[in-house]
Specification:
This protein is of the alpha/beta class. The protein has eleven helices and 18 strands. It folds into two domains: 8-219, Alpha-Beta Barrel (TIM Barrel), CATH 3.20.20; 238-367, Lyase, Ornithine Decarboxylase, Chain A, domain 1, CATH 2.40.37. It is elongated and about 80 Å long. The structure holds pyridoxal-5'-phosphate. Pyridoxal-5'-phosphate binds at residues 30, 32, 76, 157, 197-199, 213-217, 223.
């Protein structure tokens, strides 16, 4: 059976790592895209010590409210229509305001005093060039919102925080701090700031401001290019595993799988594992990735390479280095403690975020 096991304790541990790194900031824990594939319902109980959660769509925000999350919810792309703006007000959701139409909705439909929607995350484009007001407009926009009663959090997003030395980082920090200082001096000293995603939390400890917005780090992946999750003392929040459903010995010179891609040099013991790209295991890792086989009594761990093409429903692994007596129902870890999802993402030429988000509905989901 293919199983995705979510580990709430790991998420709480990772959240505490963030809090230790950013002791003076509030934490907006990012749970967009179904909590990076982990399942919002599964992770919210582990995030009770966060100050708020961040999502990308109103549907995600309403789902979190329905699940009983009663603290801050930040909608990081804001409302997509005047109707969504009204719904945000109805459900006490705080919105990003990043362009003119959103500004107009906010000015025409002002939430009642005390509403969480009175807190507006004003997005400033410091160099990512996706969302946000430019330097020339952000001051006047802030003034108008402040005048009608909004409390403002100036927000921006790094384009390259995973690479500490990238020159745009210093530029974005400089632009952000200078505009924030101007807003505080000319409009209100109460205006807050929010700059850092996970990589920013790790790489820019001097620039955490009032709210940090960690995502991937909560799930136990490394957000930076030069340090592994282990080096950052992060625990994987997901164990993705399957089981061996057949054992074979492939004769020398015989090939395995579609395209007869892998050929045995000598007689080779192989095992079939019931998982494939139909579950979200990436097809492109063939020939690079390994899995960990754990024998039935959970004592021995074997590192076994993935051979042959990854198919929709199965993969083949080389079990030459495992016990002769390896049992049919042995557990096979695709990612979790070893290998980490970051390693598989490296083999797949992508980032852990994508592998986590694109798991299919087929694997059974359980809580540790
Ligand atoms: C997704 C997101 C984050 C979190 O990014 P990570 O790299 O996962 O930490 C932070 N801020 C905004 C605006 C986001 O959309």
């Amino acid at each position: 059976m293919r199983t995705i096991t979510i580990k709430p304790k790991a998420i709480t541990h990772n959240l505490n790592q963030v809090k230790q790194r950013a002791p003076h900031s509030k934490v907006l824990a990012m749970v967009k895209s179904n909590a990076y594939g982990h399942g919002v319902a599964a992770v919210l109980p582990a995030l009770q010590q966060a100050d708020g959660i961040g999502v990308a769509t109103l549907t995600e925000a309403l789902e979190a409210r329905q699940l009983g999350w009663n603290k801050t919810i930040g909608l990081v792309e804001g409302a997509f229509s005047a109707d969504e703006w009204q719904q945000a007000i109805d459900h006490d959701i705080s919105c990003v305001i990043h362009h003119r139409p959103q500004l107009e909705w906010a000015l025409q439909n002002i939430p009642p005093a005390g509403s969480a929607t009175r807190v507006a995350w004003l997005k400033y484009n410091t160099g990512m060039n996706r969302l946000g007001f430019n330097a020339e407009e952000v001051l006047s926009v802030a003034k108008r919102l402040h005048e009608v009663g909004y409390q403002l959090i100036l927000a921006t997003h790094f384009a390259n925080a995973d690479e500490r030395e990238h020159p745009l980082n210093a530029m974005q920090i400089q632009r952000f701090s200078s505009v924030l200082a101007t807003l505080q001096a000319t409009i209100s000293p109460d205006i807050q700031g929010s700059l850092c995603n996970s990589a920013g939390v790790v790489n820019f400890p001097e620039h955490h401001y009032d709210w940090v917005r960690p995502g991937i780090i909560l799930y136990g992946s490394s957000p930076v290019v030069d340090k592994s999750a282990q080096e950052l003392d992060l625990q994987p929040a997901m164990d993705f595993s399957a089981q061996i459903i057949a054992l074979q010995t492939v004769s020398a010179n015989d090939a395995v799988g579609y395209g007869s891609h892998w050929q045995a040099q000598t007689d080779t013991r192989t095992a079939l594992v019931s998982v494939g790209y139909g579950d979200g295991y990436p097809r492109v890792v063939t020939g690079d990735a390994y899995v960990t086989v754990i024998d039935a009594d959970s004592t021995q761990h074997y590192r076994c390479p993935v051979i042959g093409r990854v198919a929709m429903d199965m993969i083949v692994i080389d079990i030459s280095n495992a016990l002769e007596s390896l049992a049919l129902d042995s557990k096979v870890v695709l990612w979790g403690d070893a290998p980490r999802v970051d390693e598989i993402a490296g083999h797949a030429g992508t980032i852990s975020y994508e592998l986590l988000c694109r798991l299919s509905i087929r694997p059974k989901r359980v809580l540790a």
